[in-house]
């Protein structure tokens, strides 16, 4: 216990003292995950809304596929992106492998189905509640999407936060396509795995503490937003 206490104290000191290596890893993690989340949100929210209100042949099949993709194994996604970006792959000419861009691509593939599937359910429920009002305006199904996205913004924020939680905690895919290169592609999850294997528990525990704190903060915010959505409190209240 004494050893653990000392290690924890050293880890907290690393965080509070502004250790350059620690914060470089944290900031790169945030940059990669937030960029991936922004792209996944721009794709996933409209896709989810279109699947919720649109009516077209094969719609149920698309919904099933999107829902199934929520459970994509990260290492398989990493392998697929690796093959696409490798020198012999179709996108090898762009030389993106082992760069933050490759990690962003892998996270986008993982997060987009989550955002699309969860937002589809939110928009579908909201569309049912507002169907009569929207019908009175004479709006076609796809023309209703901007209104539904705006009206469901509080609930959709919880969807986006769920996507961020998935992205920031990813390790399997990003280590395959990023290579865990120091000061280039080393993020919190890959650094924790590496430093633990090296026996550098202070840095691993410091990063783990930051990651857990983020997870708690995200879940707390999801809970608050979920409660607001259920009570009908506006997002700006």
TrEMBL record:
InterPro entries per the UniProt record, alphabetical: ABC_perm_TupB-like, MetI-like, MetI-like_sf
Domain called ABC transmembrane type-1: residue spans: 26-222
PANTHER family: PERMEASE COMPONENT OF TUNGSTATE ABC TRANSPORTER
Gene3D superfamilies: MetI-like
SUPFAM superfamilies: MetI-like
Primary location recorded for the protein, binned into one broad class: membrane
Keyword tags: Membrane, Transmembrane, Transmembrane helix
Cellular component annotations (GO), alphabetically ordered: plasma membrane
GO BP annotation list: transmembrane transport
Membrane-spanning intervals of the chain: 22-50, 62-85, 97-118, 159-181, 201-222
Coiled coil: none
Organism from which the protein derives: Oceanomicrobium pacificus
Location in the cell: Cell membrane
Membrane topology reported for the UniProt record: Multi-pass membrane protein
Lineage, broadest ranks: Bacteria, Pseudomonadati, Pseudomonadota, Alphaproteobacteria, Rhodobacterales
This protein's name: ABC transporter permease subunit
């Amino acid at each position: 216990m004494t050893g653990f206490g000392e290690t924890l104290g050293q880890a907290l000191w690393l965080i509070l003292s502004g250790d350059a290596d620690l914060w470089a890893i944290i900031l790169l993690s945030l940059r990669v995950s937030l960029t991936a989340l922004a792209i996944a949100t721009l794709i996933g929210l409209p896709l989810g809304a279109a699947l919720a209100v649109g009516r077209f042949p094969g719609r149920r099949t698309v919904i099933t596929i999107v829902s199934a993709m929520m459970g994509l194994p990260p290492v398989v996604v990493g392998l697929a992106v690796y093959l696409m970006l490798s020198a012999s792959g179709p996108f090898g000419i762009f030389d993106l492998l082992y760069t933050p861009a490759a990690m962003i691509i892998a996270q986008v593939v993982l997060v987009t189905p989550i955002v699309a599937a969860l937002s589809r359910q939110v928009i579908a429920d909201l569309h049912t509640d507002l169907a009569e009002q929207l019908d009175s305006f004479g709006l076609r199904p796809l023309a209703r999407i901007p209104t539904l996205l705006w009206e469901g913004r509080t609930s959709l924020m919880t969807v986006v936060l769920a996507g961020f939680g998935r992205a920031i905690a990813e390790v399997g895919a990003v280590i395959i396509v990023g290579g865990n290169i120091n000061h280039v592609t080393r993020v919190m999850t890959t650094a924790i795995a590496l430093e633990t294997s090296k026996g550098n528990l202070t840095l691993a525990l410091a990063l783990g503490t930051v990651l857990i704190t983020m997870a708690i903060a995200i879940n707390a915010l999801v809970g608050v937003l979920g409660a607001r959505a259920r009570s009908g409190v506006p997002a700006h209240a």
